[in-house]
Amino acid sequence: MSIGKERRLRRIFRKDGRTVIVPMDHGVTMGPVTGLVNMQAIVDKLASGGADAIVVHKGVAKSLELHGMGLITHLSASTSLGPDPDWKVQVTSVLQAIRLGADGVSIHVNVGAENENAMLVDMGMIADECEEYGVPLLAMMYPRGPNIKSSHDPDLVKHVARLGAELGADVVKTNFTGSVESFRDVVRGCPVPVVIAGGPKARTDEDVVRMVYESIQAGGVGISIGRNVFQHRDPTVMVKVLAAIVHEDATVKEGLKILEEE
Fold first, then answer.
1. Whose CA is closest to 24, among 10, 6, 42?
2. pLDDT tens digit string along 165-220?
3. Helix 180-188 vs helix 154-166: angle between axes, to the nearest 10 degrees?
4. What is the Cα 152 distance to its own chain's centre?
5. Which of 13, 52, 159, 179 has the fewest CB atoms within 10 Å distance of its CB?
6. Cα-flanking dihedrals φ and ψ of residue 115, to 5°?
7. pTM as predicted
8. Residues tagged active-site
9. Are 214 and 178 in contact (CB under 8 A)?
10. Separation between Cα atoms, residue 58 and residue 24, nearest integer Å
11. Closest CA to 242 of 158, 230, 122
């Protein structure tokens, strides 16, 4: 690994080798959803809570004060209005991310989608550019498409995580599979660090806290959770809770206690 990539990874991951990332690229897909109307305001709250890095698109990245958090520029896009929302296309370059001062880039691949092949081509080429410029690549790898019955199926998640690593990702983001045992298999089969996605807004805070705790117990190195953080009633406190679990090995009970006290 190049020294440039190592240095950038240290701005995303703490010394314990773990990270709390908050993706906020949803404005492209869904518009200015709740929590992402004022981007600087939510970034301020996340920084106060102890988030390690954020994921945003290039236009938003230009104007944000990051308060020391790592910046990951998202290279993929599609909208909920288009004929095929699962087809993520490349909308900027690794070089442009470098110009913005990014510490890493991210891409989104829906494995099983009708245009999976095009997304895999994009990922392969982007991974090569990341290697050339010394930029870490976070690959968001999901089983998603017309023949996918469950995007949390352990065998499918295990496959897509390994695919991300095989094509050059430095970190893979994917779905939690529902148990420590099944997610441990995902981590074992992926030769690069794995972080979990948060998915749609959860029913309860405890659901989110327990999912994060179990992913860490299984060997995951952190989270990349968006809506369950930036749409929380108190994003700063939610980040504190998740950071305590990821970085301090807090239990579910201890995490929920922080929520209650705050």
1. 42
2. 999 999 999 999 999 999 999 999 999 999 999 988 888 999 999 999 999 999 99
3. 20
4. 16
5. 179
6. -110, 35
7. 0.97
8. 25, 142, 173
9. no
10. 12
11. 230
